[in-house]
Hints:
The protein is of the alpha+beta class and 232 residues long. It has eight helices and eleven strands.
Amino acid sequence: MSEKNTDNRGGRIDSKDLRNGVAFTHEAAQSQAAAAIKSIPSMLKDYSCPICNRTFAIYADLQHHYADEHPDAVVPVKVSFNVNGKDCEVLIEPHWTLQRTLQFRLGLTGAKQMCNHGACGSCTVIIDGRPVLSCMTLAIECEGKSIETIEGIAANPKWKPLVDAYCRWDAMQCGYCTPGFLVTAKALLDRNPDPTEEEIREALAGNICICGTYPRHSTAIMEAALKMAQGG
Ligand code: FES
Ligand code: FES
């Protein structure tokens, strides 16, 4: 007989739904994603020199400081964008990719760095409505843009049918590629709420899963599309 526990909303869950004692339910994933979005640092209050740790109230003073004290070093750049509905500002080196910036400046680990060469799709995010490889996109190119990550999709109840369908059809094994598939699927359903299997395969062509879960992605996405058309 399966051991019973109580989840973080007071509901009953089976021990098979626990990973390291943490409830592995859609509600738990949704609240974790919402917490990750909430903790995204917003606008910078000051600008710290990563070389000597001096802090400046305005960015121009940091630039002057580099000119005076570190003339041979690359000056960090300030970039502002909207991530999952939250306006934020980061200070990064100009060569940083969006994937690296999301992970190391904003604490969003959902966009995975796998191949880091634009070949696998694990790092996919949506920029201004288009699925984009965040390992191949410089963060400075995203100034003023609107970025959506897997955390934004997981936190939004509208996309519960998609997440549920992926779980129900076991469209994942190791899971590293899964966020990229889900983000690509969401972008597809945004522009085409009733895709054919052929259209799904075409949309997912840039997402690679070495575990070979491909047929289940199409099944899960078509089921989610149907559920969403019926009102979730
Ligand atoms: S990590 Fe970006 S495409 Fe593979
Ligand atoms: S589940 Fe995608 S690489 Fe394993």
